[in-house]
Specification:
Chain lengths: 118, 116
């Protein structure tokens, strides 16, 4: 079974600082990777996803993530954060086993709480 | 288009009581999921359904049951609630192709449940 590790549980940054949130997974096969964001009091929204192709994926709101297969990593980055980026960020992995085996189940990391200060 | 709706928004429930959390989607997604979100533990899959009429167990299924009578609805039932089931519950849905995916999941607004 796959697992996902997010090593940074809480991150505090000043506006305009650069952001990198770590995500590592454990699964030797083909994976699909996601970053979701949860703003305070809201539900999860998709930031970006990687299925195949270019390992550098660009998402909404200026976020990007790089899939490094050799490191089993999918770190999230943003060059300059804003106060409105304050939220919890979740990395998720899908190791699809096919429709009968498990379909589209996601395994989530424990989340990183990001606080951006003015 | 509403996407995914969940009801109730929040609930305080006495231990031992039965409770059904409702989830409805209007995107005609064939797969649906229930997660619980707990501080420091992220989201954990309770049950899922790849298509109407089928269900499967997730990571933390004990104490919960689901049914999938049609494409749109995926209720989650706590037969006899216990305090450890205090959590925020999220329903999600996605497409599932014949090859299994991948497709992103869309989430509902959540139900905050407190079991006393």
């Amino acid at each position: 079974a796959q697992s996902v590790s997010q090593h940074n549980h809480h991150v505090i940054l000043s506006e305009a600082a650069s952001l990198e949130l770590g995500c590592n997974y454990s699964y030797g096969g083909t994976v699909n990777l996601f970053w979701y964001v949860q703003y305070p009091g809201q539900h999860l929204q998709l930031l970006l996803k990687y299925f195949s192709g270019d390992p550098l994926v660009k998402g909404i709101k200026g976020f990007e993530a790089e899939f490094i297969k050799s490191k089993f990593s999918f770190n999230l980055r943003k060059p300059s954060v804003q106060w409105s980026d304050t939220a919890e960020y979740f990395c998720a992995v899908n190791a699809s086993e096919g429709l009968t085996g498990g379909g589209n189940k996601l395994t989530f990391g424990t989340g990183t709480q990001l606080k951006v200060e003015l | 288009i509403a996407g995914i709706t969940q009801a109730p928004t929040s609930q305080i429930l006495a231990a031992g009581r039965r409770m059904t959390l409702r989830c409805t989607q209007d995107m005609r997604h064939n797969a649906m999921y229930w997660y619980r979100q707990d501080l420091g533990l992220g989201l954990r899959l309770i049950h899922y359904s790849n298509t109407a009429g089928t269900t499967g167990k997730g990571e933390v299924p004990d104490g919960y049951s689901v049914s999938r009578a049609n494409t749109d609805d995926f209720p989650l039932t706590l037969a006899s609630a216990v305090p450890s089931q205090t959590s925020v519950y999220f329903c999600a849905s996605s497409c599932v192709g014949l090859a299994g995916g991948p497709y992103e999941q869309y989430f509902g607004p959540g139900t905050r449940l407190t079991v006393t």
